[in-house]
Structures are given as C-alpha cells and as structure tokens.
Amino acid sequence: MSESAYAAVGYWRIRTKSGWKSAFIMGKTKCAPMKLSTIPRLELQAAVLGTRLRKCILEGHDVNPKCVDMWSDCKTVLAWIKSDHRKYKPYVGHRIDEILEATRLEDWHWVPTKDNPADFGTKLRSGTRETSWLRGPQFLQEDASQWNLGTSDVGDTELELRSKFTLSINEMSSDGSVNIVFRELLERFSSFTRRMRVVAWVYRMCDRKIKRKVYLDVAEIEEAVLIVIRNVQDVAFHDERVALLTGQSIEKNSKLWKLSPIIDGRGVIRMNGRINNACSVGEETRRPILMPQGHHVTKLIVRHYDELWKHQNENTIIAEIRRKYYIPHCRQEVRRAARNCMTCKIQRASPKMPLMGQLLKDRLSPYVRPFSYVGIDYMGPFLVVRGRSTDKRWIGIFTCLTIRAIHLEIARDLTTDTCLRVLHNFMARRGRPVRIRSDNGTNLVGAERELKRELQDLDHIRIANELSTKQIEWLFNCPLNPHAGVCWERLVRSVKRAIGHALHDKNLKEDILYSLMCNAENIVNSRPLTHIALDNPTDDPITPNHFLLGSPNSSQTPHPQEEKYQPTRKEWRIAQQISHSFWNKWLNEYLPDLCRRTKWHHPVPPLAEMDIVLICDKNLHRSQWKKGVILAVTPGRDGQVQSATVKTTAGVLHRPTCMLEKLDIL
User: Fold this and answer.
1) What would the pLDDT profile of 105-162 be if each residue is shown by its tens digit?
2) Are 363 and 598 in contact (CB under 8 A)?
C-alpha cells in the first residue's frame, strides 16, 4: 500500500495430481483520492475493492469454489472488520458494513506485506513484480497446513471511533437534594429551554421512581430549573449557602448581605423582601430567586426572556425577570444581552453617518458663467385644467451649484423625451452647462444616454473641429442618497413654499401655472446669500439675481462708485466692474460661510470589504431590510467612504454609507 494508489487481485487455487497451482483471474488498481487520507482508510478502500472484485469473479464464472479466502496486510482493517462497525465513524462504518454483507468473518486472514501481490499494484514497475502479480504468491501453491504467515496481532481499534459524552452523577448532596455534576457539559448550551429539557431527561434517567413517558411534563421542567439554580447558587454563593444551612449570619462583605437571603424548603436561596403580605402577587414575586451577575445561566435566563417577549425595550424585560428572579445590576445584563442578540441589533440598527465630506469643486469655482455647473431635479405633480379634464404637470428645477440660482421649466410627463426637451429649453436660455449632476432617476439616466448621442451628431455636422464645444459631463449620485443632492433638494422646498399658497386645493390653467413658476423663480433668485448688514443699510446683500441680472430685481443696475475702479467711458468696463464686485462679495462673504460643518462633525470607523452590513431602507419595514456583504467601497477625496457595492440575495446593489449599518457577527 502506498499513499498514491490501492489495489486488489484475485486468483484461482486449483488442486491437481502434482499439487496445488494458482492462476491469475483479474486485478484492479485505483488512484488514491485527491483529498489527503490516512493509510488505514486507504487499506480499507482496498478491502472494499477486493470485496467487489470477489463478487465480480463469482458472478462471471460458472465454477462454484469450495471456499473463498480474503487477505489483507493491514491489521487495523482486520480489527475493524471483526469488531462492531456501528461504533465507528460513518466513513469506516459504511464500508465495513458493505464488506460484511458479501463476506464472512472467517474468510479474512492476515498476510505479510512481502507476500501480498496486491502491494505491487501500488508501486513503480520492476522486473520481479510481473511474476508475482500474474502467478500469485508462493504460499498459494502449497498445502494450507504448511502456510506459515506469522502472527496477526490485533490492530488499533481506537481509530475512527465516534465521539461519546459521559455524565458523572452523584445520588445525594450534602443538603439532601439531587446534585448532578454536569457543569462543564452544560456550558455548551446557548438556549435556556434546551438546557432545562436536557437536565429534565437526565433527571428522569437517574430517578427510577418516575414513570416512563414519551414527553416531559411541567413538573419535570420546573424541577430541572431548580436543579440548575441550586447548582449555580452552590458555586456562586457557596459560603452564604453553608452559613444559611448552619444557622449562622452572613458576613458583611458578602454580595447578599443587603438582600436578606433565605433558603426555602427546596434548597433554593431567595431574597426575603418587604412585600410578603402582598397577596395579589405570587410567592415567586414576593421572594424572588437570587442569581449571580455575569454567570452563564444568568445570561441564558436574560436571553430567554428577551426572546420570549419579542425583543421589547429593556424596562419590559427587567419587569418580567423580576417577577421570578432577582439579578444584581439587572439592567446591565439586559443591555449586554441586547448587544449580543442579532435580532435586537437589526431592530435597533441605525447607520453611522460619516464625517461631512468636502464640498464639490463645482460649488467653489468663482468667475464662471452662471449655470456652468448644474443640478437637475423634478418637483410635482401639479394638476392643470384642460377644458373639462385635468392633467398632471411637473416642474424641472435647474440649480446653479455656484451662485445657487434656479431655472424652472414645465414638463408634461417624466419620460426621457420630455426630459430632453426641458433640457434643450434650459440650454437655449441659460447656455450650455459644463457639468450636470442629478439623482439616479430612470428618466434622467435615459436622457443622459440619448443626449450623448445627439451631442456627438451635433459635433460632427454643425460645428467645425477647431470650434467644437465641450460635451456635457453628466454625473449621477449614488442611488437612494438624498444627501448628495441636498444642494438642489433644498431649493425644491423653497419653490414649493413660494407657490404653495396659490396651488392649495386649486386646479389652475397651464399658462397660470407658468406665470406662478416665473414669479417663484424670481422670488427664490432674489433671496440673500449672505447676512444682511443692519449697521450699513446701503450695503445690499448679494443675491443670485446680482449674477443673472446685474442687480436685485427691485432696482436698476447701479453705476459703480468705488474709488478703486478707474473711470472709463467704455460700457463693457462698467459691466466688468459690476461683475467683479459681485464675485468679490461672493468670495469674501458667501464662501467663508460654507467652511463650517453644520452636522456629522466627527469621523466614524469606515466600512471595509467583506463587512457584513444591514441596508437600512426607510421605504421598507425593518423586517424587510436586506443583509449583504460589501464587495467594494468608494472613498471620497477626503478618504471617507461615501458608498459601497453590496452583494445581497436580491443581487448586487450600490448604496451610500448613510444606509449601511455594520453587523458584528459573533
């Protein structure tokens, strides 16, 4: 036998006038499994192969042999065959069972390795192997009485045995109650109910007076609970238990000294409180059982009540526990159980918001044409009257990310074609933007694809190569991430407030809706971007209309009177001076206000690949939140992880970190 192959070979042993002769019938060799296996297991596989070879030979010949002998050079395999195969592991037990179904114990014999011809089938070729393999071993040509194959000592039968547990049981303890020494065994249980049932079954086996049943009754379960509690109290409160049994007083440094402990008639330590006369509650509530803090059984009890009451708040769990048990610092135990409970983690999951990120370069670029960097969104629907019917209309809002100005356009629906038309109307009036940002809406995604194709055709047909305009860059925010688009989401609310009073429970005509939209646009663009200086009434705060119209919409364009400007008669110089004055105010007054973080002030531990996370979707119930594994993370320029790619049962999703809560798998 070698570690790379195993083999079996069969011979006829024929008796003639001149003596015994052997003839080769057939042999078979198989490669060892790729998975590493032990030599005894490979020898067992060879024995199985020999058993199947024997069956094949007997079924393929008409000759009925007087006897069939099986030979093996592995003493461990012979010991397995001649012992009870049910005590071994399934790998060994199933194969021995197959061997014993086709052979008898008397058929198996031991042969030295040097006389085993099957051993040559597992090794490299040699000149002597061919003769031994085809003709068989020399002892087959001799009489059976002359075989001298040596002794076959019993092999190691302890290999491949099934694991078994042993319970050490003492009939009586010092206080006359049943004491089962099973502490180390019961530490492996993580369920209070399962633990009590195991103890109840063991107690039934120990007590012969109990009538045999196929199920456990309530009395047996309650007795098992008391057995476990006495065992725990004997370990945690041993000195106090001895003092109470002997009638002595408990020392002042004991944890139970202030609880006035007593021992009831069943050997359980209870608290002797002040409500013994309260007949409206049970005996267990008036004298609760004392349990040690931090013990494994105490943790199981707290977890049992947490699951029993469907993971309610900690006050509910504490109130139910104190109806039967008194645990010092019970609130800490309940909170610890909630931290280790996966269901409580999911029910109370709240994503940790990362540090408020850096502002986009689009918002910090001065001296650019208004609406060079745009954010687009929709608001509505609004009901308009058309004859005797009503239709829905939406308003597309374009926000200049730099000067915070808005442009409004009416959209008939939310299709891609309408989105393109609204976008073309905007560019015809405000110019072609450099970059557009939007949410990941379906119509916006489709518009971006078609817009790219149209711009490519436009560059090839109408504009020369040297004067070709830059294509518009369209960037999409991470799905379900409203924080990324807060710059234009906030202005949606401002527009709704400006026209909300006119649209309250009214159906308007489309031209009136257009008029209200223009007024709302002017109102929002007239809002101040900086603080109003009360001590200097002549210093007007800067507004978006200063960049769009050259002045607030309430007055005409002022003539620059600043002394630092050189007087000139050229009108373009006047316009340039006015524009520079607005941008200087934007740089000196508006831009510094953006420096301070208004929320999310502290960094949090970033998410990493292979983290288990819970996707907290506010649009779904908590029971429908999906769990997944992070495949990749997307960090921002400041190093904070902004979004992640999560693999879930519903597929691969891209979600922001503000929706992901990391789950600590214990």
Assistant:
1) 888 888 888 888 888 888 776 655 555 778 788 888 888 777 765 545 555 666 777 7
2) no
pTM: 0.52
Element (H, E) at 197: helix 192-206
* Alpha helices (runs of H) in 462-594, residue ranges in sequence order: 486-500, 510-525, 544-548, 571-585
- Three-state secondary-structure class, residue 639: coil
- Gyration radius (Cα) of the chain, Å: 44
- Cα–chain-centroid distance for residue 118? 53
Question: Mean pLDDT in the chain?
Answer: 78
Q: Helix H segments across 237-393?
A: 238-246, 283-286, 296-308, 314-321, 330-340, 342-347
Tokens of 325: 């048990």
Q: Three-state DSSP class for 584?
A: helix
pLDDT for 468: 37
Nearest CA among 566, 412, 436, 444 for reference residue 488 = 436
Cβ pair 435, 472 in contact under 8 A:
yes
Predicted pLDDT of residue 505: 58
3-state DSSP assignment of residue 594:
helix
Say how far apart CA 411 and CA 254 lie, in whole Å: 78
Residues of the chain with pLDDT under 70: 1, 85, 125-131, 148-158, 163-186, 207-213, 441-471, 481-486, 501-506, 532-539, 553-583, 585, 589-590, 593-594, 601, 665-666
Decide: 9 and 134 in contact? Cβ < 8 Å.
no
Q: Which residue has the tokens 């530490």?
A: 187
Measured distance CA(100)–CA(86) in Å, rounded = 12
| Pairwise CA distance, residues 545 & 376, whole Å | 19
**Would you say 385 and 509 are in contact if contact means Cβ atoms under 8 Å apart?**
yes
Question: Beta strands 406-411 and 5-16: pairing type?
Answer: unpaired
Contacts 24+ apart (CB under 8 A), 537-541: none
Question: What b/e sequence results for 149-159 when a residue is b if at least 16 CB atoms lie within 10 Å of its CB, and e otherwise?
Answer: eeebeebebee
